[in-house]
């Protein structure tokens, strides 16, 4: 079985992330998803906790008919030299890394991993979605329906408005 590894913070999981999962599963049989910075929450850059991010991902992938995935939490250690080894001890062996982060791509390439830089959908990224949520702008079409429902359930926009005022 050929396994891919997609790592990101998924703050929140959006349609660009979903597209990456769909594209990756054209190349691999199973996708391991690493929720990076898993120990952080409650701040503008990382508002949602790891459990909420996992629930968003799972709901969106199941809604899309994707079942060949596993989710792992990947806390930061703030040490580039040891980070790849840290990550690879937390997740199952994989054949291909998928990331939208150039620094992550560089670190894994240096350790000999095959890396695919993901092509997100132009105009869709977590930072702008979080900012739009905090400003009460229209962000709802940028996330899968299941994620929108989950964010509404946990009052995600209200949380971001509150965090942005701190």
Structural description of this entry:
- 43% of the residues lie in helices and 16% in strands.
- It has seven helices and five strands, in the order E-H-E-H-E-H-E-H-E-H-H-H.
- It is α/β, with parallel strands linked by helices.
- A five-stranded parallel β-sheet has the order 3-2-1-4-5, with helices on both faces.
- The model has no long low-confidence stretch (mean pLDDT 96).
Mean pLDDT: 96
Q: By helix and strand content, what is the structural category?
A: alpha/beta
Number of helices: 7
CATH homologous superfamily caption? HUPs
Question: Quick gist of this model?
Answer:
The protein has seven helices and five strands; from the N terminus they run βαβαβαβαβααα.
List the helices and strands and how they pair.
Elements: E1 3-8, H1 15-24, E2 30-36, H2 50-63, E3 69-74, H3 80-90, E4 96-99, H4 102-110, E5 115-117, H5 126-134, H6 145-153, H7 156-164
Parallel strand pairs: 1-2, 1-4, 2-3, 4-5
Helix pairs in contact: 2-6, 5-7
Notable characteristics:
7 helices, alpha/beta, globular, 166 residues, 5 strands
